Amino acid sequence: MRQILLLFALFLFNVNLTLAQDSAATQTAPNTATENLNRLLHERAQMIKDYEYYNAQNSNFWGKKSKKDLLNIIDVLKKVINKDSEIIREINLVNLRKQAEIKAARAQAENQKKQIEFRSIDDKRVVSDNLYALKTQIQNMENKEKVKQRQINALEESLTISKETIQKLEQLIAVSVVAILGLAIFAFTRTNKSKRKKI
After folding, report:
1. What is the pTM of this model?
2. Which of 33, 76, 130, 143 is geometrically suited to a Cys-Cys bond with 51, CB 3.0 to 4.6 A?
């Protein structure tokens, strides 16, 4: 008898443990997406700080940006663009989850609507209240989706600005290289002429 009670107690403990694990797993999924997005945004902010640091460097002989400084700036901007792409992917995943929730809510609303229509006519007031609540919930989810879409648009705009900045920096590097080569050739020919005059 004692063994049966012990086995029954263990069975109840296992059932409670399984239910607790299932509820914990469903609660951590949305938090993980938010934490992942927050982590990506934090990493992007750190990269922007790196960009500002390298952009402030003027370690050239003439007090301007050296080639190494410009290359560091370009590398950081490339990392920012890649991080922006990761952020957009993460936001898209969150949006897909939200859209799935909206579709599920719509499907649930439609199912509930059909079930309510088969009920008696006396329950019309209850039915209309339920439909209003579901429509409000759908509207709230659609509003959240619109907010996420605005965020995506803002990030895409930031991405295009970053790409334009990289293009400008590449042009600046090209012009700098040509100018440096021109100065080097000018100095070389100048020293050769002065040496020839001395001879």
Report:
1. 0.38
2. 76
